[in-house]
Design goal:
With 377 residues, the chain is mostly beta strands. The chain has helices spanning 176-184, 217-231, 285-296, 344-352; strands spanning 4-8, 25-32, 36-44, 52-57, 65-66, 69-73, 76-81, 86-92, 98-105, 112-113, 116-118, 145-152, 161-165, 168-175, 191-192, 202-209, 235-250, 258-259, 269-270, 277-283, 301-303, 311-316, 354-370. It folds into two domains: 4-118, Beta Barrel (Lipocalin), CATH 2.40.128.120; 145-331 and 338-370, no CATH class. The protein has four helices and 23 strands.
């Protein structure tokens, strides 16, 4: 995904099934997800492989996301998008021109209502053109956010997200702790001396850099660091402290990772399809350790693999109740399904040829000397 970096929970996928209804056409409706998001499903006519669908969130850009499948059982329609991890399930009315349904997102406290209507030529919403690919920003550039807005998140907004699309950086439902851990590559336990509100007050951020081109990962994080100092008046000093950590190491049998063929200077993509399913593309081992410590595990993760380069892989496991605190997600109780994937530690060893070892280590700690709630936009 050039110029697109998503760290977020998404929408889960759908299986194909027999269709008793002709769903061909555009279906559209508005999802209340902290703000109004207009959703469009374009469904193509059936072929031997079953109907095909593409979803557009037109208030978040013009990029279509292919549904992994569509299942139709009677008047119930289920559409899934494995690429971003979410499910829509709706029930057709007697005219087959409307559906009453819900959008379910991993990590959200409850499904969100989403009712769809079949669009006509007169009522169809215009889908924006996807943004053109941007040239990379010069590696020597030291950009700042030319425009940045910070607003309190709407109460009870589910989930959280960090999103980069081209030259647009945004966050949803993020605390100052989330922003600091993102900007400096830390676990929340590596932040000390701060007031309690940095873990409870939540913000939505939208920003765009100065200069030309698409920033790289280091430049995005540098801009967030400058924003924290400017708008939150964050001042701190570093210290070393021995903490309980997980060391990420190569298993004795050897690593099982696939080298990425993507641009080594491009942004990584590590985006949960759902709790316990993490596709990683163009990701380094520090990238993987950072996501695991920020979203999944309850302590810092120290990369000790010494593996250079970037990799493509998908890690699938059955999470337990101790995991995903970083996303504020509630892990469902185990079903007892014998075919369920293994737990995290076994999955990392079997699927990636790596291990997570619980140990203690001296790690960098950020000691907050000063911080304020953000200045007005």
């Amino acid at each position: 995904m050039k110029n697109r970096w998503l760290w977020a929970l998404g929408i889960w996928a759908i299986a194909a099934g027999a269709q008793a209804q002709d769903l061909t056409g555009s279906w559209q409706g508005t999802l209340q997800a902290g703000r109004e998001l207009r959703i469009v499903f374009k469904i193509a006519s059936a072929d031997p492989g079953g109907p095909k669908a593409v979803m557009y969130s037109i208030d978040q850009g013009g990029t279509g996301i292919a549904a992994s499948a569509i299942a139709v059982q009677g008047t119930t329609v289920r559409i899934s998008l494995a690429a971003i991890g979410a499910t829509y399930e709706g029930k057709l009315d007697s005219t087959a021109q409307a559906m009453v349904g819900t959008w379910t997102q991993a990590g959200a406290p409850a499904p969100q209502p989403l009712n769809l209507k079949r669009a006509t030529a007169d009522t169809a919403w215009t889908i924006p053109e996807p943004p053109a690919a941007l040239k990379p920003m010069a590696a020597t550039a030291t950009p700042v956010f030319e425009v940045a807005t910070i607003k309190p998140s709407k109460p009870d907004t589910p989930g959280k997200a960090f999103v980069v699309r081209g030259r647009q950086f945004s966050t949803l439902n993020t605390t100052l702790t989330d922003l600091i851990t993102f900007a400096y590559g830390l676990h929340a336990r590596q932040i000390t001396g701060a007031p309690a509100w940095i873990e409870t007050e939540k913000y939505d951020l939208s920003a765009q850099p100065d200069g030309d081109g698409a920033p790289n990962e280091k430049q995005w994080k540098s801009m967030v660091q400058k924003l924290l100092a400017d708008r939150f008046k964050l001042a701190f000093h570093h210290d070393n402290k021995e903490l309980s950590v997980y060391a990420l190491v190569v298993d004795k049998a050897g690593q099982k990772l696939t080298k990425s063929e993507a641009d080594p200077n491009g942004l990584p993509t590590l985006m949960f399809q759902r709790l316990g399913v993490l596709p990683a593309r163009n990701a380094s081992m520090p990238d993987f350790a950072s996501v695991m410590q920020a979203a999944v595990l309850d302590r810092p993760v120290v990369d000790q693999t010494k593996l250079p380069g970037r990799f493509d892989f998908t890690l699938t496991w059955t999470p337990d109740e101790s995991q995903f605190g970083g996303l504020g997600a509630r892990v469902p109780a185990p079903t007892g399904d014998a075919a369920a994937p293994p737990g995290l530690f076994t999955a990392i060893q079997e699927q990636l040829g790596l291990r997570l070892e619980a140990t203690k280590a001296a790690v960098d700690v950020l000691v907050v000397d000063r911080v304020e709630k953000p200045s007005d936009n």
